[in-house]
Design brief:
Helix content: 25-40%
Largest sheet: 4 strands, mixed
CATH class: Alpha Beta
CATH superfamily: TonB
Radius of gyration: 16 Å
Strand content: 25-35%
Number of helices: 4
CATH architecture: 2-Layer Sandwich
Structural class: alpha+beta
Shape: globular
Oligomer: single chain
CATH topology: TolA/TonB C-terminal domain
Order of helices and strands: HEEHEEHEEH
Length: 152
């Protein structure tokens, strides 16, 4: 829990710099498992697998932080962690196309900061290994939080 509070503090500092003229106090960080209290995903886009990574058989992940704006679009995209440079741009491009709807409780359409981890896997079967994907996702997200913690 201490790591989460530290992460929230660091993300607040990061976004107070990145949001420019916007009031950084108007943002709160919500990890994906708490986001539904404010925002519900309407459109989530999978990133394009980079051709170079595919040809090389490269697998990995990237975690992107972003602001959900009052109109449900995303802004201020920031790649926190990535296993290969090749995964950065497609991850940001996908996150830019996300669209959210405010939850019933979020009548004021409060902007929030959240993160999304994208995984890139090559599967030799028609059924991807969900445990392997989840392990890759969790490792990338944990590393992103670790990197944020180290910046303090």
């Amino acid at each position: 829990m201490k790591k989460l509070h530290l992460t929230l503090l660091i993300l607040s500092v990061l976004f107070s710099v990145n949001v420019g003229a916007q009031d950084s106090e108007s943002f709160m960080f919500l990890p994906g498992d708490q986001l539904d209290a404010y925002w519900v995903i309407e459109k989530k886009v999978a990133p394009n697998y980079p051709d170079r990574a595919l040809r090389k058989g490269e697998q990995g992940c990237a975690t992107v932080s972003f602001v959900i704006e009052p109109d449900g679009t995303t802004s201020n995209h920031n790649v926190l962690i990535f296993s290969s440079e090749l995964f950065k741009d497609p991850s940001v491009s996908a996150a830019e196309d996300f669209l959210y709807l405010p939850s019933e409780e979020n009548v004021d359409k409060v902007s929030v900061i959240t993160i999304n981890t994208f995984t890139y896997e090559i599967s030799n079967s028609s059924r991807p290994d969900e445990e392997k994907r989840q392990a890759l996702h969790d490792a990338c997200e944990s590393k992103a939080i670790e990197v944020l913690s180290d910046e303090d």
